[in-house]
Amino acid sequence: MGRAEWIKFFACFFDKEAEADSIFDVIKTNYESLKALTSDVVSRPKILINMPFKEQWHMPGGLSYSAHLIEDAGGYYPWDTLQKINSTPIDWELVYQKAYDSDYWINTGSYTSYEEVRKALPDMDLFEAFKNKKAFNNNARMNGFGGNDYWESGLFYVDDLLADLIVIFHPEILPNTALNYYKPLADE
């Protein structure tokens, strides 16, 4: 919610505080309503996030917005005990040891298909989420220049991001809701 709250700061420069408060209140109400839908889920799927780079994974800290979104969507993030906001580089083998049995894999970098991932990183076949075709990327809204709206409006409309993750992790909670910022990796 902190990222969405920036609208209040910028509104001060344009004498639009009341409008900004109203927009923020809608986002906050939506987010809290969605979060409440997952508060009683018993089964919290394990979530792997991001993509390895040069044999290391940069895992967001347990205090990061990514970790909070996963938790609020009813998921379990194995690095939630890292008491920091920023990412920590972790060796590939340690990530595998802790997350080989992840139920879902999100934010798969620039890859759009399982075949692309397999060609670049054949070891991803060792991860359950990859084998079970439960990988999703946050690139559903790309423009013609390669810009990704996840990094633009998605970080403001955190309620929509949360809805996407709930649909992925617990489709039974929001059965008729389409994904907005995420899409599954394409099958071969």
Which structural category do the helix and sheet elements fall into? Answer: alpha/beta
CATH class group:
Alpha Beta
The CATH superfamily title? Nitrogenase molybdenum iron protein domain
Total beta strand runs: 6
Strand order of the largest sheet: 1-4-5-6
SSE run: HHEEHEHEHHEHE
Tell me the CATH architecture: 3-Layer(aba) Sandwich
| Largest β-sheet summary | 4 strands, mixed
Rg is 17 Å
What is the percent of helical residues?
Answer: 25-40%
Distance between the termini: 37 Å
Strand content: 5-15%
Report low-confidence residues grouped into runs of 5 or more.
none
Could you report the average pLDDT, rounded to the nearest whole number?
A: 91
Summed up, the helix count is: 7
Q: What is the general shape? A: globular
Number of domains: 1
The name of the CATH topology is: Rossmann fold
Give the arrangement of secondary structure elements.
Elements: H1 6-11, H2 17-37, E1 47-49, E2 56-60, H3 65-72, E3 87-91, H4 92-99, E4 104-106, H5 114-120, H6 128-131, E5 135-137, H7 158-169, E6 183-184
Parallel strand pairs: 1-4, 4-5
Antiparallel strand pairs: 2-3, 5-6
Helix pairs in contact: 2-7
Question: What labels describe this entry?
Answer:
188 residues; 7 helices; four-stranded mixed beta sheet; alpha/beta; two-stranded antiparallel ribbon; Rossmann fold
